[in-house]
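Lab notebook, bench 4. The sequencing result for the construct came back, and we need a structural model before the next group meeting so we can plan mutations. Quick request posted to the team channel:

Model the 3D structure of this chain.
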Amino acid sequence: MRIPRTHHALLNRLLPGVRPDDLTVRQGQFHEVVIGADRVVCLPRTEAAAARLPHRAAVLRLIAGFDRGFRTPRPLVEGGAHGTDRPPFLVLSRVPGAPLEAEALEDPRVAEAAAAQYATLLAELAGIGAQEKARAALPVSQEDRWRRFAADVRAELSGLMSGAGRRRAERELAALDALPHITGAVVHGDLGPENVLWEWKDGLPVLSGVIDWDEVAIGDPAEDLAAIGAGHGTRFLNRVLARGGRPDGTVATRIAVIRATFALQQALSAYRDGDEGQLADGLTGYR
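Done. Here's the predicted structure in C-alpha cell form:
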C-alpha cells in the first residue's frame, strides 16, 4: 500500500532519513499504519478516529505500565489537532515480530507452543483486570452492552441489508440476550492474528508482543477467545482452551455467540466513522 502524498512531509519529519519505499504501510479499520525500523506512525482514517487518539495514547501508557510479560507499543510523540488543518498522528515504539502464518500452525509442535503462550497471555490479561488501577482507568463493559448493540444494529444498519440479511442478523442478535454479564478480565477487543506478534527461536514461536489496543475494556475473556477462534480456527482455539485449564461450562456458547457478531460489530463501527470500505466488508454477508 502506498503512503498518501498528503502525508509525505509529515512522515519525513517523523521518520527522518527513511525513504518512503523502505516503509511498510498497513490499513487497519481505524488507521493507516506506517511502519519504520523502530517506530510506527498511526494516521487516523476518519475524524472520529482522530478524536480518539489522545485516549488511545493514554490506554497504551496504562497497559505498558503493568509489564506483565508481553510487550505493547509505547506512545512517543502525539501531534496534530482535531478540528484544525494539521494532520493528527500518533508515533509509537515498534514491537518486534510478525503475525503467525496459518501454515505454521499445521506443525503440531508450533501449534502447541503458540497455544500455551496464548493461554498465558489471557491469564496475564485476567490478572491485570483484577487490579483496581486498571478497573479505574479502563471502560467496564456495561450490563446492557449487548442489548444496546442489538438495538443500534437494528436502527442503523437494518436498512442497508437485504431481507435475508436482516433475518440472519436477527438470529445473531437474539442469541446475545442469553449472554451473562462478565467483567473479570482485561479484554483486548481485537485479538486477531494480525495483532499478536511473534519471533522464532529454535524452530518455535515466541510471543513478542500485542498491538492495536483501541477496543480494550474490562469484560468477558470469551471475546478474545472468539477472536482467536475466528483468526486461527476452532481446532487451535480448543488447544488454547485446553492449555488454559478447566474452562467455565458456558464459555463455548459465549464464544460462539460473540464470534457470530464480529461482522456486525465491524459494520456498525464503520458506519459511525463514515468508512465506506469497512462498512461494505462488514455487511458482505447481509446484502
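The two ends are 28 Å apart (CA to CA).
Will bring this to the meeting.
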